[in-house]
Specification:
Radius of gyration: 23 Å
Order of helices and strands: HHHH
Largest sheet: none
Number of helices: 4
Structural class: mainly alpha
Number of strands: 0
Strand content: under 5%
Shape: elongated
């Protein structure tokens, strides 16, 4: 085999390898997206079972911190715990969309919506769980609105 044929062969071999690599990438995003959903669900469920069930007095939002935590601390701890799951789901949605190889504009729109919606849901969670006493809900709401307006 002469030098030019050898170079052309190597080029084609490298190109094929790169194409196969790119074909596999969406599958990894799909796997990562599914895992993000599973981790978010497991995180919230195990938190409810292992951490918060003993802090609950027949209400959805736990309030009994015993002698260690005041009620307001338990409430924000509970909200913060579940905010992690909300963000996990939002990132899972982005990863699933990446697995479908979106256009740049589709991806931009999705990321904007994922941020705005997850911040809004987090704001509502803090607002409701702390009875609007923790100011974090305001910051999360402002982030949501600014993101929505910027989109």
């Amino acid at each position: 085999m002469d030098q030019k044929t050898f170079q052309a062969f190597n080029f084609l071999k490298t190109l094929k390898s790169n194409i196969n690599y790119l074909k596999g990438r969406p599958m990894y995003f799909l796997i990562a997206g599914i895992l993000a959903f599973l981790v978010a669900i497991i995180h919230s469920a195990l938190g409810e079972h292992l951490v918060f069930r003993r802090m609950r007095n027949s209400t959805i939002i736990p309030t009994n911190g015993s002698t260690l935590l005041k009620e307001r601390h338990v409430r924000i701890l509970w909200a913060s715990w579940h905010i992690v799951s909300i963000f996990g789901v939002a990132l899972g949605v982005v990863l699933l969309q990446l697995s479908m190889e979106p256009t740049l504009e589709q991806l931009r729109s999705l990321v904007i919506n994922a941020i705005a919606i997850s911040m809004l849901l987090s704001s509502l969670l803090v607002f409701i769980s702390t009875k609007a006493r923790h100011p974090g809900w305001i910051g999360l709401l402002l982030i949501s609105v600014a993101t929505w307006l910027g989109g």
